[in-house]
Amino acid sequence: QSTWGFLERMAGKRRVALVGFGALGQYLADHIIAHPDYELVCILVRTVPDDFPASISSSLFVSDVAQVSVAQPNLIVEVAHPSITVSHGKEFLSICDYFIGSPTALSDRQLFQELVAHSRQSGNGIYVATGAFWGAHDVQKMARLGTLSKLRASMQFHPHSLKRLEGSVKEAKEQAERSGGRHVLFRGTVTELCPLAQSNVNTMAIAAIAAENLGFDGVEAELIADDSLSAHIISIQITGNGSP
Length: 244
Known about the structure:
The protein is α/β, with parallel strands linked by helices. The protein has helices at 3-9, 23-34, 66-70, 82-93, 109-122, 136-145, 167-179, 190-193, 202-210, 215-218, and strands at residues 14-19, 38-44, 61-62, 75-78, 97-100, 126-127, 148-157, 182-189, 220-226, 233-240.
């Protein structure tokens, strides 16, 4: 489900702290303010924006992470960048439930394990949205039943839609832009790809989380740039173990 769909399904009154105020952060802020079961208590940003909707009070913006705890949220929603979870995920879990909008951060196995440990210790939950990965809950069921043996995720983008790439994937994308056509930028595991395309492959990260018996190391990833595309294409290939 979407980030907002997740919020709508949470029971009880929620005091929400947003981390990030880009396009998605602004969308969520508007909906949280308008919803009777939610109260927006703060918005953590690096710098307070010069222009924001009149419905949002300037007093909601904070630039000090310590102010998030002062606002006493019972749900923190990250929609900024994977580095937020790396730097502050454990701290946020010590405060309340934590929703991770940039799940590529969880490709770091040690960080993933530490967050789960903090969640169990604090009693606060970690949440991610299934987003564009339709069928995620079915994949999770297969993983838990032991019937999932392989999962391969392929994502295709117009080169101009691929942002903030790193390393070999960035170099391959630049070559694709120069030569045009369709190019495979990466084949390997989701663990290997996430740090190189953090802002582009959240769907693959969700696939790796759902396929918990395979994990980030076991889910295969393919990233393609194709300048003939007018929309992103996501293909998921799932293989069972053949047991009835």
